[in-house]
Structure formats: structure tokens, C-alpha cells
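anyone seen this seq b4? input:
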Amino acid sequence: MVFKAQLMDERAMQRALTRIAHEIVERNKGTENLVLIGVRRRGVPLARLLSQAISEIEGCAPLPVGTLDISFYRDDLSARAAQPEVLGTDIAFPLAGKTVVLVDDVIYTGRTIRAALDALMDLGRAQRIQLAVLIDRGHREVPIRPDFVGKNVPTSSEELVAVNMTEFDGENSVMLYQQDAP
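predicted toks r here
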């Protein structure tokens, strides 16, 4: 891979997350029955940061945050690995009657979110599900559109958007790479 550009630094990410937090609160008229569920891996720390931002905006306790593992719901499971790495789902609250904000780092084809929706449906019937993503890079293959977007980044299919999170990568940033030719 060849580095092309830094799309967001830590401050830009924080501004985008703060804006998304405001939009979530506004669209839902507050935080009542609102929960956040991060898609493993990088959706989880993003969901935690959104919970913290909403707490600061509304002067309330942090919103409940769950973790969703979609490993067995992917439609490309056999192409990804012989044995998928299963990290587990951790949602310690019922979904019934809740507005769930599903959080992921990048939306591309929409297939990951489709898998996440299938996984959520198996866990219970939420009142409503909304989608928040840090980066929307286009190229949908299924009709899924995020409700909240940090940044729209038009890309080619040969490019890769990498969201770095402190707990995995040592920093918060978003990078754009050109994938090597096959």
C-alpha cells in the first residue's frame, strides 16, 4: 500500500464526533431510551467516544455502549478466513423499546452494516435502528445509507481508508492509501 493523504487528524475526528453527537441528540429529541452499539473493531471505541460526547452535551450519564461481533453474519465469510476470529458480542442491556445507534468507522459497500443489522435482529427487536459512521466512502452494493456521517470521502475502489484508533493504533486519525496492483 502507498500512503496518499491524511484525511483527518485527532482534532478533526473529535470535531466530527462532536457534530455527530449533537445530530444524534437533536434527531432523537434527547437521550431517552438511546443506546450505542459499536461494530467490532473500530466502531467500538467510536461508540464510546460518542457516548462521552453526548454525556457532555446533555449533562447526563454516559449512554450504554454495546459491542457487536458480526463474524458469522458476513456474506464473505468463506473468502475471509478458514477460521474467523470471533471476539464476541457484549450487549448488557435489552434492545426492546430502545433506539439503537449502530456505530462503525467506514461505510463502503454496505455489506458490513447489512451483516450488523442481521446480528442485531437476532438479539432482539429495537424500536429503531440508526447508523452513524465516521467516514462514508461511497460505492454501495446494497441500499444502506447512514443517518449520521463524520465525513464523506469520494474514493476509488483501488483506495483504502484506514481509521486509526488510539487503543489499536496508538493515535486517532484517518488515512488514505492506494492499494498495490495485484
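The first helix runs from residue 10 to 27. The mean pLDDT is 93. kinda curious what u guys think
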